[in-house]
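Superoxide dismutase
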Amino acid sequence: MATKYTLPPLPYGYDALEPVISAQIMTIHHTKHHQTYINTLNNALASQAVATDKNDIVSQIHLQNTINFSAGGHINHTLFWENLVPASSPSAQTHVASKLMAAISARWGSLEKFQEKFNAVLLGLKGSGWGWLVQDTESGNLEIVTTKDQDIVPAGKKPLLGIDMWEHAYYLQYLNDKGSYAKKIWNVINWKKVEERFVGGSDSVFGTLAGLRSNM
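Predicted structure tokens:
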């Protein structure tokens, strides 16, 4: 029987990130968009299990694109919700991530310069996708990368911080001014969580999603 995935509850209320992200956006983004990725994933996994039992390799191949897209949507959004927090929370203060801040300063000169570079990368995305702060698992170096649509971060890169740049993440509030969204979202970053990802292993980053990720 195929594993069934469920929508993870947000660690805060739908209105908790206002005024940076509206309650309307958070509600739709979580209960509609994220839920749809999970529904599609579960249906595709069930169909894949049937195809596997029948040794139907053609159907398995056809289903893989849907599984990769939907699983990526589930993984990316789960990481995204976790690395956000109300601006009033102590976890939104940079001093709770001293090791990461030191590494960011060593790599880019300062947090401000890093944010400028990151935002430039976000605004350079063509179409839908994500911007990520990642750590190379071999060298330990910090990098800024992007992923297209719902692709997950490449193998060998540990995701520390992800920003959703799909239009549904900001358009109802910011319209075509995604630059303001990219600037303001820094006020609701959960630096405590990003620090935990930085000092922990890849499995601790993905948690219960680790098995799903390894099958993509």
